[in-house]
């Protein structure tokens, strides 16, 4: 039995729910055309009965000689009676008669209208909840899509960081190759230094030998001159002896002349070798300067290798941070997938509930269509349907609360993960900047002047 509402409440619920003008007189002093009009609006707007269902009786659809215009009013009353009597029996435990449509009794009309008002009020409440739930679902769906877009953008940023890391690793390999080249050059120059030292010592020894040979020639020349003087004092008056002595002196003079030429040649070679020794000394001094530069460069390389080792440690930490970030992103993806599954489950349950409601609605329509043959229902079935409607209302409210709670939890989880992700990306950016600064210092340290390298090579060739 429907709850008997006061007249003002009945008028308010029906006017708002049906969007149709209803007055107190329609309840207290019902007229047939007004009652039929209210029932007609209720069947179309609330029960969803199409307008075409009020134009022709289903059982008379195939009769050829029947005039629709002549029977329009009677067909309308029969169809309206069939629909509304089935509704009142199912949801209000009320018995509608044709007299209630043609000559309505105020008391019965109020009971029927109270049943309609109660149902319209429930329908409006359920429709508002469904609309609000649909809007919330669309909003949360949009938030999830925004979060997924943000995750994709962060994945692209991570790919960019990985690309920069690969560029950094290639640059590191180039620096390692440059360090190896400089080390090889240093070893080569060090070996050339040893060779030059040996050549200088050999030149010095050769110069000492030349000086000794020069002194020996000078002693021999002085001895020859003294012998000439002695021979001049001891000349024999004999012409033969004089000729022999002259011939011997001529030979000795030629020998002395040859020895003098040899002495001049030796002196010239000695002067050339002394000049070369002087040039070697100059080149050796330049080489000493270059060697000092190389030693200094080697010390700087050792320092930069220490800094580079520190940079490698930072690079390893950065790679570890990137791996941790990737793990966190995977965790976020997992949480997002779990959230989506919960969301889809809630939406599936919501759709199932709506499907059940739609099935109930279709069942009512089916009952209305069968009302031409079955106009009575067992009271126990009516009470059972009313209980099912009440249970559905309770279940829908519970599902709505659970759905809102799940959406709120998922939103908080997404916001927390995004905040952690932003903090981690900030730390990685700082590490990348610091690492780039260290790399620039290493590049400036190992960068060499091609002109200076060419000059050092020219000096080495001159010494050789």
UniProtKB/TrEMBL annotation:
The keyword Hydrolase does not apply. Keywords: Cell cycle, Cell division, Centromere, Chromosome, Coiled coil, Mitosis. GO terms for cellular component: Ndc80 complex. Residues 445-464 are annotated as: Disordered. The keyword Cell division applies. Residues 4-136 form the Kinetochore protein Nuf2 N-terminal domain. Residues 144-259, 284-409 form a coiled coil. This is Kinetochore protein Nuf2 N-terminal domain-containing protein. It comes from the Eukaryota. It holds the Pfam family Nuf2. GO terms for biological process: cell division. It is found in: Chromosome, Centromere. It comes from Diploscapter pachys. Belongs to the NUF2 family.
């Amino acid at each position: 039995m429907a709850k008997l509402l006061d007249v003002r409440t009945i008028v308010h619920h029906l006017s708002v729910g049906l969007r149709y003008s209803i007055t107190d007189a329609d309840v207290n002093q019902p007229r047939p055309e007004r009652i039929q009009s209210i029932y007609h609006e209720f069947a179309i707007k609330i029960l969803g009965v199409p307008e075409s269902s009020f134009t022709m009786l289903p059982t008379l659809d195939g009769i050829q000689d029947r005039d629709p215009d002549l029977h329009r009013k009677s067909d309308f009353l029969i169809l309206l009676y069939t629909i509304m009597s089935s509704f009142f029996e199912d949801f209000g435990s009320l018995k509608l008669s044709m007299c209630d449509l043609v000559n309505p009794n105020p008391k019965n009309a109020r009971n029927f209208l109270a049943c309609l008002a109660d149902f319209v009020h429930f329908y409006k409440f359920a429709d508002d909840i469904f609309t609000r739930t649909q809007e919330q679902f669309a909003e949360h769906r949009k938030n999830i899509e925004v979060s997924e877009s943000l995750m994709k953008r962060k994945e692209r940023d991570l790919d960019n960081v990985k690309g920069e890391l690969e560029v950094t690793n290639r640059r590191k390999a180039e620096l390692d190759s440059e360090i190896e080249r400089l080390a090889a050059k240093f070893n080569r120059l060090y070996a050339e230094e040893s060779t030059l030292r040996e050549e200088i010592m050999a030149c010095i020894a050769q110069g000492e030998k030349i000086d000794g040979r020069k002194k020996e020639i000078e002693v021999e020349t002085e001895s020859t001159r003294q012998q000439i003087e002695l021979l001049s004092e001891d000349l024999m008056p004999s012409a033969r002896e004089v000729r022999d002595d002259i011939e011997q002196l001529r030979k000795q003079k030629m020998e002395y002349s040859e020895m003098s030429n040899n002495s001049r040649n030796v002196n010239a070679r000695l002067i050339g070798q002394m000049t070369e020794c002087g040039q070697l000394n100059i080149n050796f001094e330049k080489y000493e300067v270059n060697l000092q530069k190389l030693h200094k460069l080697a010390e700087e390389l050792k320092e930069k290798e220490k800094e580079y080792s520190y940079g490698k440690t930072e690079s390893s930490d950065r790679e570890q941070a990137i791996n941790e970030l990737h793990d966190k992103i995977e965790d976020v993806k997992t949480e997002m997938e779990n959230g989506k599954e919960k969301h889809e489950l809630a939406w599936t349950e919501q759709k199932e509930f709506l499907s059940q409601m739609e099935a109930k609605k279709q069942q009512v329509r089916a009952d209305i269509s069968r009302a031409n043959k079955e106009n009575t229902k067992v009271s126990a079935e009516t009470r059972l349907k009313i209980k099912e409607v009440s249970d559905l209302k309770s279940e829908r409210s519970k599902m709505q609360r659970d759905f809102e709670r799940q959406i709120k939890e998922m939103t908080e989880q997404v916001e927390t993960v995004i905040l952690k992700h932003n903090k981690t990306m900030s730390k990685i950016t700082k590490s990348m900047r610091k690492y780039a600064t260290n790399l620039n210092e290493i590049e400036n340290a190992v960068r060499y002047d091609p002109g200076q390298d060419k000059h050092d090579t020219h000096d080495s060739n001159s010494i050789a």
